[in-house]
Design brief:
single chain, alpha/beta, Rossmann fold, seven-stranded mixed beta sheet, two-stranded antiparallel sheet, 7 helices, 24% strand
Length: 225
């Protein structure tokens, strides 16, 4: 059998987005909406997920499932990527901090929607691969740092939005401190067996309000002591 070409992959990507729409409708009671922002869906249709997985897994890139990328890490399920992006609601003038770059797929989605993306990855090999790929794809508004994401990126704070692609029992104080008043943080919170996708909004007085949504399962946020 011959290899898939770009036309085949584009069709699969459109089908992936159709599955995200179905999954969103089915999960609407848990997430409070039946349709995701069309800007987010357009970004999901555009970004080539098959480039952000190991080459052997490229034929499976557009299935609505997480895939292993090495170092006991995964690229998140497309529905979860789309949902977290929608909940974060990045706007064209927003500065976004992403914690957990991985190979850069979620980063690319954010870069399609936000003004500037600062992203932190603790695994140096991932950061190097993501930096090269995002550069090749023309994402000039992304900067990658190798380090402990729970500490944020103080030099570029505060941030309009923060997205964390790993779980913790509670939101790191360092990240909350670097979130602008009026800003939003989205991440999975809770013990490993009871994580829930969570929105944290900070009001203009610096007070935070938390909203728990549907149950999820993410790898734990790694920190450096």
């Amino acid at each position: 059998m011959k290899a898939m070409n770009e036309n085949h992959l584009a069709i699969l990507r459109r089908h992936m987005v159709e599955m995200i729409a179905i999954h969103t409708d089915l999960a609407s009671d848990g997430i409070g909406k039946a349709v995701l922002d069309e800007r987010v869906m357009a970004a999901m249709r555009k970004v080539p997920r098959h480039l952000f997985v190991p080459p052997a897994l490229a034929p499976f890139a557009y299935q609505d499932t997480p895939l292993p990328i090495g170092f006991d890490k995964t690229i998140s399920q497309p529905f979860i990527v789309a949902l977290m992006t929608d909940l974060l609601s990045p706007q064209p003038n927003d500065t976004v901090l992403e914690v957990g770059t991985g190979l850069g797929y979620q980063t690319a989605i954010l870069a399609e929607l936000a003004g500037q993306v600062w992203t932190i990855e603790i695994v140096e090999e991932f950061a190097s691969l993501a930096r090269d790929l995002l550069h090749q794809l023309g994402y000039a508004t992304v900067e990658i740092h190798v380090g402990d994401g729970s500490r944020g990126w103080r030099e570029h704070a505060p941030f309009d939005k923060i997205l964390v692609t790993a779980a913790a029992e509670r939101a790191p104080d360092g990240l909350l401190a670097q979130l602008k008043p009026g800003g939003r943080l989205v991440m999975p919170l809770g013990p490993e067996e009871m994580q829930r996708l969570t929105i944290i909004d900070k009001d203009e007085d610096g007070q935070t309000r938390t909203e728990d949504l549907l149950p999820v399962r993410f790898s734990l946020l790694e920190t450096v002591t």
